[in-house]
Amino acid sequence: MKILVTGGAGFIGSNFVLYWMQNHPEDHLTNLDKLTYAGNLENLASVQNNPNYTFVKGDICDATLVNELVKDIDVIVHFAAESHVDRSIMDPSAFVKTNVLGTQVILDAARNNGNKRIHHVSTDEVFGSLGLGEQTAFNEQTPYNPHSPYSASKAGSDHLVRAYHDTYGLPITISNCSNNYGPYMFPEKLFPLAITNLIEGKKVPVYGDGMQVRDWLYVEDHCRAIDLILQKGKIGDTYCIGGLTEDIPNIVAIKKIIALLGKDETSIEYVKDRPGHDVRYAVDWSKIHNELGWAPQYDFDTYLERMVKWYQEHEQWWKDIKSGEYQKFYKKQYQQR
Ligand code: NAD
Ligand code: DAU
């Protein structure tokens, strides 16, 4: 099979490329990535010389390029996006461009080349926020109610993907997953920011009271879920994917990271809250479990320990990122609070 991955140099995309090359060595994988600040070819050093892997630097909004690439492939797995909520609050324009218009370009290319199969990777943030202390969880029937420019742009992309299925018969599947964590996670997101700041002897910025809840999905479990959807998923369907977690407030997760690194709670710094902050996410993943046999492999604590160890063992990877352009974003995001 020939597979086109978009955004394969980012956090989840690069984990997926490594996963796929290891588990499906007979397939040919093309990775189309613009290499924005979030794209990093170092993540893919171990496959760069594999004859079954091709990297193409380019923009998913470039219709000519995307059309050319899609001609020769069987399946598209679409990760490419602007993905950080705080950046979308600073400037939504790149989010609308890449996440909405870029997805439309991918869909048109799939349609113009014989209705190619596409799997669209989306987020549980499109559903909005659940109430703190509720027993509720998002599922495939939950109405869309996004609150940030990021989640609104992802919601727009999901609607387009479904519309191309309903209107043109494009063979699509969608997954809406919760917060991923694991290796190669860019240190602007909470967990890698906390881990790397603590290793550097800095404080961890906690928005508001830190009582917000996220559903944590280890990135390798996510990759296995996408693999199953590609193999056995029902065309036209959506699958919600989440982790093996009870409600874990951010502050509890941060205290676990502090303990794993042998630090103490003086490392916590409460800062101004995120505007429009969703207070609670939880995902009911019973559909993908019952229909495709998927479940997370390990619990939150096991994976968190694994992640912290990875960052301890890969200091150069994240120090290279944190020493560059990243510093401007960090200053803008945290020093005005
Ligand atoms: P990321 O920001 O780490 O990586 C995004 C990748 O896309 C980067 O390599 C970047 O260079 C590339 N890219 C951005 N704009 C592009 C463009 N115009 N053309 C080509 N490539 C472009 O993102 P991530 O965290 O790996 O997320 C991947 C996907 O999964 C996104 O669609 C995101 O919405 C979704 N998602 C992420 C999470 C999460 O917890 N990180 C959870 C749910 C869903
Ligand atoms: O739910 C899936 C989503 O998870 C994905 O669609 C997004 O691409 C991904 O970035 C992630 O969004 P979040 O906004 O949930 O992730 P983030 O790591 O930015 O924040 C996690 C929680 O931690 C959130 O409640 C905000 C809080 N936070 C975050 C940062 C960066 C802090 O308290 N301090 C911080 O410095």
Kindly describe this structure:
This protein is an alpha/beta fold and 337 residues long. The protein has a domain at 2-181 and 216-245 and 280-300: NAD(P)-binding Rossmann-like Domain (Rossmann fold). It is 42% helix and 16% strand. The chain contains 12 helices and 13 strands. It has a 7-stranded parallel sheet, sandwiched between helices. Strands 7-10 form a two-stranded parallel ribbon. Strands 8-13 form a two-stranded parallel sheet. Helix 5 links the parallel strand 5 and strand 6 (172-177). The chain is globular. The model has no long low-confidence stretch (mean pLDDT 97). The structure holds nicotinamide-adenine-dinucleotide (NAD) and 2'deoxy-thymidine-5'-diphospho-alpha-D-glucose. 2'deoxy-thymidine-5'-diphospho-alpha-D-glucose is lined by residues 83-85, 123-125, 178-179, 189-190, 193, 205-207, 212, 214, 250, 274, 281.
